[in-house]
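Researcher: I'm preparing a figure for a lab meeting and need a structural model of a single chain. I don't have an experimental structure, so a prediction will have to do for now. The sequence is pasted below. Please return the structure as tokens so I can convert it later.
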Amino acid sequence: MKTIIKLSILFLLITFFFSCTNINWDSFNQSMRNVLIMQNSQALISKLNGSVVIAEDGTYLGKITYQYESESIFNEFGKYGSSYSPKSIWNKYGTYGSKYSSYSSLNPYTSTPPKIFKNGFFLGYLTVNKYLNNAINPYVLSSFFD
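Model: Understood. Here is the structure written out token by token.
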């Protein structure tokens, strides 16, 4: 009960402070959204780090981890991160990276993209297909693991 009272008082003080100042609420709201997005992103990265990527046909496609690890899908010199490797999602001419292949994470229309697993549990799909539930865009993900 004391916590609720403290939070209510804090809320009233913050509301009073901002009502007495000349603040751009749109800017404030956007800043708060950005903070929440960053917190959620960090939690997602923590959850995904070390997970494995498996194609619909059962082929192991590497790990979601930092770029310097040998099995990382973000290691551009490794078996699973090279744009020339047949087992890479970044090979735009390969089965798992072509924008036309049904098994590719880069096909915006596929219904069978690679799956992400950690400790045997399904976490989502590694895909640019924004219409799939639990879709994780590999381009966005790569920005966190560089």
